[in-house]
Amino acid sequence: MRIKTFAAAALFAALATTTTTAASLAAASASASPSNAALIERGGALVKFGGCNDCHTPWKMTDQGPAPDMTRMLSGHPEQLVMPPAPVLPPGPWLGSFGATNTAWAGPWGVSFTANLTPDPETGLGKWTAADFIATLRSGRHLGRGRELLPPMPTPGVASLSDDDLKALFAYLQSIPAVKNHVPSPVAPAAAH
Fold this sequence. Notes:
Elements: H1 2-32, H2 36-50, H3 52-56, E1 59-62, E2 65-68, E3 97-98, E4 104-107, E5 110-113, H4 130-139, H5 155-159, H6 163-175
Antiparallel strand pairs: 1-2, 3-4, 4-5
Helix pairs in contact: 2-6, 4-6
């Protein structure tokens, strides 16, 4: 009887030591790098500070005036909203115009449509890696090598963020609800009018 009790106590002590060691290793590992929740929280704060919803979330009319439609948060220009040709501005100091949703912009660059930043794998950033995201924002080119990012994207300001901040932005964007929304391709200047 004593042997069984001793064996059970030894087994319990060994398990407790193993569990404590595993828990200590996990705690040490977690304290060595920021948790995913902290990274996402930082990314969310950067999205708010950077005003990403101002352009990447379609606007709608409310009782208080135009406001971002958060049911389509960061989903870009609505695919069902086909824009007419951009207005031709008279000569003078005006440079461009924008659509009522704040997701379509026209100027000397042609017409640009804000991108879907949600994690939808077909129409958003769902298949992107953090490296793809960082390369895009550092270079001002789609996936770091494709077409240029167009106005109103504040590429120089965003490119000046640290890699840690860009990783936090990406972590946040991967954590939000995916919205399937195919954004149109930009329109070249000659075809914009």
